[in-house]
Fold each of these.
Amino acid sequence: MRVTGEEIKRRLVDFARKWSLYEGSERAEAQTFLNELFDCYGADRQEVGALFEDAQQGRFLDLIWPRRCIVEMKRPSEAKRLEAHREQALSYWRNAADSAHNVPAPRFVVLCAFRRFEIWEPGAYPTEPRAQFDLVELPDRMDALMFLAAREPVFVASQEAVTRQAVSLMTGLYHQLGDRLAASPDVRRNFLLQAVWCLFAEDLGQLEGHLFTRIVDQLIKSPQRSSADDLGQLFHWLNRRGPRPPGGLYAETRYVNGGLFEDPAEVHLNKDDLLVLRLACEYDWRKVEPHIFGSLLQGTLGREAQHALGAHYTHEVDIQKVIKPSIVAPWHERIDAAQTHDAVRGLQHELMNYVVLDPACGSGNFLYTAYRELRRIERRLHHREREIRLAEGRKHSEQGALAAFFPLTNIVGLDIDAFAVALARVTLWMGHKLAVDELDLDEATLPLADLSGLRVADALRVSWPAASVIVGNPPFHGDRNLRGLLGDDYVAWLKQEFGCGVKDHCVYWFRRAHDHLRPGQRAGLVGTNSISQNRARSASLNYIVENGGVITDAVSTQPWPGEAVVEVAIANWIKQPDPLPEHFVLDEQAVDGIDTALRASTLPIADVPVLSANKGKAFQGVIPRGDGFVLTRDEGAQLRARSDADYQAVVRPYLGGKDIASTVGQQPSRFIVDFGVRPLEDAMRFPAALEIVRMRVKPARD
């Protein structure tokens, strides 16, 4: 059966999520990888005649589908070196033609290292690949491999590329307006959000007759007119209830509001500005991914310009590592188990009251994905109701007995950045319209839903709204950076409020999330991988498990896209589950249980009890928070010999593992400046040691 593009994309998201963590060899899993890839496109590899390990002049092709394609696989570690393997793959192609049997060489060559793809069409384009992309981009670039579904592939800019181009235009316009002081930053941001919604809405039929584009065209043709009047008037009408003018441009405008047009932006655009805006009108905004657009726009214009335009957004593949185990899989299991109409109606009642909270929502990436998946869950529930109806011989009904729609207002969030929250609302409004179109629903999308449930607030200082599930990726700031970022007073408040000392910023979200859950509820959060290590583990994952949490699905460590080079861990858990879960997944592999170090284990807490026999004999020792504290043997000896103070009290021998393991005498080879818990006034009694700290340590802390 022919598989729809929507189904292919959904399968590819799961496929990429599974294989993104694979670290093994080419030979071990290449055939499994390719069989599953074919299946994503609705093709059975054996039935279509694609062969593994086909011999060719003493060599073996990983896969050949006669006339269609050759696939050459490499291990994941070769993902950044695919260029080095091009000649091998192309030589297979050159030797694949069989003139004796009138069989031409396959049209396409795929060079793949699990995490990276190159697609060649060497007969027509012999010098460069038609497409190159990472595994996490595959759902977005699915058309490039459409020949696996016996359809013509399309090699065009991906939705991500189109989205980046659209962001570049709109942020360029924002900065142009700023350079000539056309409006205040707040008014410019309002104008940007209102214009973006109009561009999106007119391509999806919410703004009749491409009205926004027509107004821009008229402004370009009539320099005496002003966008502050014409576009400003459009924004006013979109904010206004009641009758419309009997004729003219605004006669067919609809009431939109939702808070978006509450302050209509009146900004005068010069000709250059209008030409940029007109170019933005040329894009097919149906192909712009709302969550990508919001993330990139926040990065460019958000508080402290957190990311440059070229920075990565969070790929859906990574978001699904939270959304699928914490939301999708539990709902699918319950829907598939429903056997009666009463059970289905009960599930719909629960779904209509199911609230998703992201307490660090940013521009709404996780919330957008969660909302879209919940609308698909809603459709699955409707299909289940119809199956039961038909099985009982009841009258067929296209709509079925479940007529209510999952409300967008059930999506709530918190973020300290006001612009990010405004973007999240626009992202979700776009998502609402896209979901209604995708599922072909008879559901109103105007006026825009009231999304006041997305609030500007410091999530650690305010109470959280009631929720059924908590998802997201809270800030990744390390514990050593908190004072510089948040200030001494804030850090002191964190210590007092949470009672666990100074930890990585995300740790406090894990604790607050678990405290906020009710028994049986789930959460899935991304954190720095320190949550499974040492001191941070005791304050986060250990705290969760010690207070009734069970970790059900996790990623132990993986790189996270973005400017900061950071390794993250992902933990999904249930609070006080009844009954206890039977299935656990760690790094996409089924395991018997997961401990707080995010290792496969049936013992839930990784830390072993302290051995009383070691008391007073074995301990961790000092961990210097900067290399500047460490002195050579000569430096330490000179300081300790000074007569202006008793430097032996603060300049101590520093014995490390290398000294113990590599010298017979096991004597310290260095010294360390150690003021302990002395206040500054006391430390000033040792001026030479304090000067070393000022010169070597303080610059790194500033």
Note: The chain has a mean pLDDT of 88.
Amino acid sequence: MSERFKNATQSMAQRRQDLFSQLRAQPSGWEWCRKLSALHDELWRELWSDITMEFPDLPPLSIVATGGYGRQEMSPSSDIDVAFIPLAESPELDQAIRILFRNAHDAFGRVLGVRLSYVYRLAADLPGLDSISLTSFLDARLITGSSAPFQNFKEALWSDFPTAEFLNAKLEERRGETERTHTTPLVTQPNLKHGAGGLRDFHCNNWIGLAIGERAIPPTYAADQLLLYRNLLHLISGKLQDDLNFSRRDELAEVLQKDPFVLGSAIAESLTQNHNDYLHGLRRLTDNRYSLGQFADAARGEVRINAGAPAGQTAALLAQAKTIGLELPNQLPVLTPQVGPEILSALTSPTATLRAIESTGIFELIFPELAVCKTLMPGDASHRYTVLEHTFQAIEEFERIGPGSPFSEIRNELADPNLPSLALLFHDLGKAIPEGHHQDTGAIIVSEVVDRWGLESSLKFNLSWLVKNHLLMSQYIRVRDIDHPDTITEFAALVPNLELLRTLTLLTYCDVRSVSPELWTPVQQTYLLSLYERASPIIDSKENPSEVESSAIRRVLSTARSTGNTSIRDIEEFLSVMPTRYLLSTSEETILIHHQLYNQVESESIIVTFQDHRELGLTEITLVTPDRPGSLLNILATLYAHNLSIQNLRCATSESNPAIIIDSFFVSKAGSLLPHHLRQRLDHDFRRVLEGEVTATEILHSKGKDPDRKQQFFTLEITEKNPLILEIRAPRGRGLAYRLAKVISEQGLSILTARLGQWAGSASAGFYVVHPDDQPINIPSLREAFLSPAD
């Protein structure tokens, strides 16, 4: 760095301070910003002069101001953004730029205290630039150096400008900015740049105009006033600040010698005018005629696709055009069938846009596997919509997950926020092929389509896995005991990673919700979230997948001590006679409650308690009594006699003498909690049937039920584990739990836990059973007992 340049830098620093003093004495907007920008331009020219003296034969290089500096909109604490644009790369140029930038950092950063950033760009880089980078070059201007590289760059920029994509990105970006700050200009503490009515409204209005071929808009009075307020805010705060709070507003009012409330109203007026200008400017998108890129134009509020356009790029253009407010054509011209990764931008659009794209008929060309589902009827009566409409409804459910939803945190943790909507788009495509399970054929379709479109192998794996397993969590929450660690371990082993677990959880929720509104219940939601929360640490390898019995006992005793319970030895004795499965699958608080009930059995032969779970719409009935032959069947007969729906039941028998059963049933009456009078009647009937006053047959007959009615079955799956798991699908109807338990009891088996629910128009149930003497279970005999024809 030459001595001459050092002296020039010191002089610039003093002149910069003089400008700050001038701003306080005579506040202004663009006029002052242009002076500061011009001062910085002088310093760049000095830098360039120094470099050309050191490198006299440098190839052509343009030093270009971008962003706010390019607009000559430098407020006191604004950053300086520049681009170095050569005609071509060269080693000598690289060395010169490194020295140039080092000297610039020293001058601007150390001496002037201005943050500086730069980019190195060739015209060949343009196709890969995002909308933010493109925007910075819309405001670009030459500071110094050769004009040829910059001119060449601008010509390349506009020769193939992605108008539709750019407009779509700018509108979305602007919506996001106002949502993060304020969506109306009529606020008391505005953000002068990013809030509704802020300077960004003026900028965006200008960028839209440039993108559709208009000239730049000169600064308006409202925008100039806002820039004046922003200049003073920077000056007073001494930093880059755009939020004007009450304290800073009062300081601005003092500088401007105005009443703070009068100033607040003046600021609101400028914000309102600026925002109205922006909203009015948006009308150009539907009123004007302009090019949307190489393959389409906008005219009279409609998008017009050119004949011969590639189908994949056309789909992307249609999505972008719909988002900026253009109507899509009812009929498309003949297109060429090329489809590549660009199709993803269309397929991950909001559902309203997907519906509009589908209405053009383009899916028949690019995605026939989806198009065929439009009028395809699902194979079960529980679905309310055709396969395609169900798919769109499911994606809309995903879009509705926002703040306040119990699934919003899961959605926010996704690495790929588009994966759930893509998986939902593909999840039922296999239903168009009658042979086989639709999840299996759907996974094959995914592989074929992803290969055809040339998408990444990682996306192919994720989508294939999700489609193949999209019923997995539904199956587990319907019929498996998710309170037991073995179930969670088994499930976690099937899921490759946390990203797929998160996506599968969201997919399950949206899929079931969109089948029909009645199908998704608070119980299912609770079980789904519980399965997700319990499996997450195992999949993430942060937690041992199984809890040993001693650890469970320690947790119970620790909870007892923390609540001031002094009967620790008595609790230890209770835990010693309860089976391991009970200890591992029951919460510490519930175990302590059961301990109290267990002790009361000594003075009462039968204890019945009722506890409401309002968030689930279920009442929990707990029965504690000495074990008797057929106790569970008698209890289930009583519940059936009173027309109660059973969602879940858990059975535990102590190893004490006498053995004590602790059985819990989660039930509802017509979808609601049990009323008081019904609880009294149930308590009475439980005691009668358990004490032998009446038999299960008699109590069922008294309520008009047939105790000998055979249960019909659709499917029976047996998982040979310990305990044995029976997964059953059967016709819907009351008494399912009783009739299934009767078959199991007749085989001499004991039920540990059961889950009951509904799915796809039929009932589903899962029973965990063991032989009471730990003998092997005769699987063929059990299967025959279930599937033998009804009389």
Note: The chain has a mean pLDDT of 91.
Amino acid sequence: MDPISAAGIALSVASLASQVFMGCIQGIQFIITAKNLPEESKYLNLRLRMEQQRLFAWSETSGLMDHQEDNGRKIQESNTFVIHRTTILDLLVQIQCLFKEFEKAQTRNKHLQIAPEPVNSEDDLIYDPAKDSSSAHVPLSEPRRRFIIRAMKELKSKAEGVAGGLSTGRRRLLWAAFDKAAFENLLQRFSTLNDNMTDILDFRLQTEIHRTTQDTNRGVLQLHKDLASLHQLVKALDIKMQARSYPVHEIPQYAPTNDAAGLRLLAQLAKFKAFNESLDTEGPAPWDEATAMVLQLGQPDAEKANTKIERSRIHLNPKTSSTDLSAIRCEAIFEHDIGEKQRVWIEWKEYDYQKPGALSPPALIVDRVQKLASLLHHSPKPEAFRVPHCLGYFDNGPREASELDSEGEEEALDPRIGFVFEKPKDEGVSPDTPPVSLFDLLSSSPKPRVTDRIRLAHAVANCLLYLHSVNWLHKGLRSHNIVFFPTASKDKRGGIKKVDYSKPYLSGFDFARPARADEMTEIPGDVPEYNMYRHPSTQGQGFGPRESFRKSFDIYSLGVVLVELASWQTIDRVLDLDVGRMRTAMKIRDTLLEESRIQEVGSNMGEMYERATAKCLAGGNELGILETDDETSDAVAAKLSMAFYEDVVKKLGDVKV
């Protein structure tokens, strides 16, 4: 078939398919907006909305939804609408008929009725689908919102010229008696048809659909905040996952994969976010046993209280703990209750805001430490986080005489909190292997391949993306807090240690906290070396208002790390700066954004890497928001998350060398 004929066939099929697709959306809208849905069944409606978003993703990726606006460019770039023209039309017709038949059957059985109140021209069903979607905690992009409005208006205009058509085109359904079994069957069939729609596309388009769906899923998670809504979300995800078992990749790669794999990751994130929220409850637990079981909450209060470890059970390695009290981590032995000894590593958190003679940190510090230790200890933890497993914490400050060791001596005591971390069980990692930071590697290790550095950049950005997806800020992101555990390897020179740059661990959670409007910020003290990674607006010490730190500041810190990776030098060496000059540290952002500096990043790593780095450093409009926007609001958080994914994480994953 010649190209001109093929293009003509593709556009003709797309024109017909777009009409059927519009009918699919109309039918779905009537069902998902039906009133009087029982509270206990709202998770089914949520699942249906997510399947609708998946169908939208297919239409956008294939080029069907906007084929008139772009003159069929996407349609002609792919041969999908030529090779699979019959299958596409057949599947879309099946989806349209599925919802028509469901509505007819439910109406015939008097389970569904037309709402008695008249629907006027300002009906939310037609003119404000975004408001309806937001109330269900499902984000709706502007192109999809416009398409729904157009579809419902077209149905309304057609119905007005038909006898009895007013109730057909301008109506709102309501549930008189909800048929759960029939609704579940509808969901299963719709989900299967969606799977089939994706399967007929080529590798590239399937990859794009998976990306778009994952982005939508993160938006859904962003809008589900309290335990009740997170409970509904996990139940909605379980509908799909109970059918079959799918593995979850440590860090989802952008390759065609069944939708259920992404849903399983989303469920893990939702459960972790729920546990995070549960740690802030006071008094009797406001959730019931069923909610706790679905969300795998366990007993948050008990888990929080049990995170403290007796100082006498921790035996610091004198080689790594006594030489430099300013070191942020060291090796140690943890002695368990049963006498078993385990090699661990310690992350230190200093505290000096206490009353003279006090034997414990202030209550605020203790509360923060317990929450953080609980989060890092809680299982299951999403693998996408790439964070080490915390066994608990101990206070390394002054102790009572009864707490001293057998010889009555204090071992390297100073007012610091020690977080105790388990060594990873990755293949080839010895229990004796201490963590090595990216900062140390930048200072002493030969420059790795460009491909290794790009994988590392993408892995760290992806970790931050998922950390933010559960509403948690790192607030200490820098090369000192990106660690690796080298594996044993052999070559002609004998045994050597090899670093897998695609498997970093994000550590240094000493000042991490939830990103909530009511959460106070504990601002880190002035350490010039660390200030070089901090956004200028965050530099200071003591305690300040909650608004002083936000997600975009974490992203800025990532940008500084990306600059380091491009040159394989620490930031002070990249800029040839004296780390002790505080005023210089405050000007680092402006220096890094100079055109010559940004171009230097591109000359080392390529144009896409350069753009991603510039986006992180610039923030604001470059990330789709204003400097003055409140990043704790749903709308702003959603825009920031989407921009960070599209312009940074996705771009870094797409870099080819």
Note: The chain has three domains: 3-293, 307-422, 438-657.
